[in-house]
Amino acid sequence: MDTSRFATEFSASIPGWVLEELAGEPEALATAEERMRVLHRLAARNFRDGGGGPFSAMVIESETGRVVSVGVNRVLASNLSATHAEVTALSLAQARLGRWDLGAADGPAHELWVNWRPCVQCYGATLWSGVTRLVIAGDGPELEELTTFDEGPIRDDWEEKFRERGIEVHIGVLREEAVEVFRDYRAFVDSGQAVVYNARGSAVRS
């Protein structure tokens, strides 16, 4: 076995424009609407930038509202299928804080905010991250219908499973604005400017 050809590390990063978008925002976003508007803005720019799909996420310190990290989907930019917005945001928060458990008893509680319900991969990532609350713009069929992304076999009782593990779930912050971003993405795809990447080699430019 020639191990000299093995990759021994991998990495992903958020693009510089994300930090530019956040530069004018306060350290703590006080309201649910402020937080979700930022996420919608990032999601709408991300697919136009070519880094990945119309998805964004942020980790927030529960007590203060301080933004700890922000992530956008980086699948196309990184060639790593795991770099969804939730995974990126959670990983950057863990790297910044130096801890894998974002809800450990000796530290502040943290929340994950996302512009739609997590896919099956990010469902698991959220469960194991230690966050104590998940807030999403919405759930339902609109995402898959409009974007044609395969979100995977999500359980019907996904909310209950989060709550059983001490993760509060809140749904419905600026839902229609999230759907509008997905409509814009679909128009981008239909014009041939975006790649819809799904598993089993089905990444295609429509």
UniProtKB/TrEMBL annotation:
<dbReference type="InterPro" id="IPR016193">
    <property type="entry name" value="Cytidine_deaminase-like"/>
</dbReference>
<dbReference type="Pfam" id="PF00383">
    <property type="entry name" value="dCMP_cyt_deam_1"/>
</dbReference>
<protein>
    <submittedName>
        <fullName>Nucleoside deaminase</fullName>
    </submittedName>
</protein>
<dbReference type="InterPro" id="IPR002125">
    <property type="entry name" value="CMP_dCMP_dom"/>
</dbReference>
<feature type="domain" description="CMP/dCMP-type deaminase">
    <location>
        <begin position="30"/>
        <end position="165"/>
    </location>
</feature>
